[in-house]
């Protein structure tokens, strides 16, 4: 039987408004659970942010759903609105520790089935490194970070320092797009999620490649980008062409951009067989891991079905992407 490990899913604990107020009474996220207990709303202060269902905060319900879906192991990470990057580092450190401890409590319901990635106060690199190491030692399987901190992309020297710390400590890193670039032109139809979110992920990858940051980060870093790496795979040919033709593109990047695909992995959340074919052709099957974005509406409803039902992959390739790659990436026993 093929092992299925979903390495990209989200959680949001039953944070009360009083708990959120310790971070920021006006904007910090908390959970308003409906009277029936099956649905709720993530709130940002007084503002409704996102409707959610019980599996997001109830680990027992999550296990019941994973049983129905045939998922053996699921790695959870914070809903990005929980990051708290806009606040003072020391304040966010306390918030991150509390959220990370709550996450481990959720996993304790079924520790062989539910595992978690930590969040860190990425606006303060020293504190981020401290919490990444603490959480990893406490049982987290890695860290999830947002793809930028305000105007700082992943090529920022502080963020390169953080990635280097994780490489040296053996801490896997999942990069998740958040706080998407947008303006008044993206006002309807979830366009920030459909247009800006894939662009954010591509921006993060290219920031590391074209800046030469990958030349300074140890090759031991286990780095993964969510949502199939966004628009990166489809547009990589354009980037290579620009590198060949324009010195301004290659001035900090000593090697062809496509030569860096062996420095990171991606998840499989692309929702289309042809897109998955291209993703595997670009990245290699050893660098694609099952990721569903569960339990949100834009996630894969039948977790793993895109890989399992793909006509172009043999059973060995499917087994790698469904579980073996994540098993190795996160060092699972």
UniProtKB/TrEMBL annotation:
One Gene Ontology biological process: secondary metabolic process
SUPFAM superfamilies, A to Z: Metallo-dependent hydrolases
The keyword Zinc is annotated on this UniProt entry: yes
Keywords: Decarboxylase, Hydrolase, Lyase, Metal-binding, Zinc
Name this polypeptide is given: 2-amino-3-carboxymuconate-6-semialdehyde decarboxylase
Stated family: Belongs to the metallo-dependent hydrolases superfamily. ACMSD family.
Keyword field contains Transport: no
Gene3D superfamilies with a match to the protein in the record: Metal-dependent hydrolases (3.20.20.140)
InterPro entries assigned: ACMSD (IPR032465), Amidohydro-rel (IPR006680), Metal_Hydrolase (IPR032466)
